Amino acid sequence: MPTPHLEAKPGDIAEIVLLPGDPLRAKYIADTFLQDVTQYNSVRNALGFTGTYKGLKISVQGTGMGMPSAMIYTEELVREYGAKVLIRIGSAGGMKEDVQIRDVVLGQAATTDASLHRNIFHNQVDYAPIADFGLLKTAYEVGEERGFPIKVGNILSSDRFYNDELDMKKLADYGVMAVEMEAAGIYSVAAKHKVKTLTILTISDHILTGEETSSEERQTSFEDMMVVALETALQTEL
């Protein structure tokens, strides 16, 4: 049945779903990489599409910005539509010197300054959400085989975009490679429902150097991570 945020009918959404934050990136992926595409969602302009990639049924769903928004879509995709593999694909800010603009970063784990885990676990633990190892391993191998600039490590899911109080340098000193805004929430929903998840990011700007890409480039041209996500999905057992 349709949810408050997704108007898809049963069967419209695949068991494997790519999750870009930007709904126009969802459209770009569907238009560029998928065949036999149908659009199943336009509620709140959170565009969602289903098609096939080399014969595999795949959906692409925009989640919007931030963990609260991303968690709404992932919860409904899994609980109401039976999604079993969730692969976030998005942009991120580089935080370490050895991470360069346009590098592809795989989020092995997702540190966060958000209160969501303290709420879930009633302040008993600092829960550390992580990616599915099988997806992580496959994605790394796909990137290596194609010669993409690919790195693996801890990422930061920030609760705020403008967050002057957060000590980014200290986080980088502790090995955090990049900052984005959704992965920790998606990983936590996936853990709750025992489904597979991974975050694949392209470095769009750099905290240390001030380098950045254009908004149009972030929306449409980060194809290395899109290929890694699609090829990983192709090799994933449901």
Automatic annotation (TrEMBL):
Site feature (Important for catalytic activity) residues: R218
Keyword Secreted appears in the UniProt entry: no
Pfam family, one: PNP_UDP_1
Keyword set includes Transferase: yes
One GO MF term attached to the UniProt entry: uridine phosphorylase activity
Positions contributing to a purine D-ribonucleoside binding: H5, E180, M181, E182, S204, D205
GO cellular component assignments: cytosol
Role, per record: Catalyzes the reversible phosphorolytic breakdown of the N-glycosidic bond in the beta-(deoxy)ribonucleoside molecules, with the formation of the corresponding free purine bases and pentose-1-phosphate.
Record-level GO BP terms: purine nucleoside catabolic process
Alphabetical UniProt keywords: Glycosyltransferase, Transferase
Protein name listed in UniProt: Purine nucleoside phosphorylase DeoD-type
Organism classification: Bacteria, Bacillati, Bacillota, Bacilli, Lactobacillales
Domain Nucleoside phosphorylase: 16-223
Residue positions binding phosphate: G21, R25, R44, R88, I89, G90, S91
Top-rank taxon, per record: Bacteria
Reactions accelerated catalytically: a purine D-ribonucleoside + phosphate = a purine nucleobase + alpha-D-ribose 1-phosphate; a purine 2'-deoxy-D-ribonucleoside + phosphate = a purine nucleobase + 2-deoxy-alpha-D-ribose 1-phosphate; uridine + phosphate = alpha-D-ribose 1-phosphate + uracil
Family stated for the protein in its record: Belongs to the PNP/UDP phosphorylase family.
EC number(s) reported in the record: 2.4.2.1
Entries under HAMAP family matching the protein: Pur_nucleosid_phosp (MF_01627)
Subunit relationships: Homohexamer; trimer of homodimers.
Residues at the catalytic site: D205
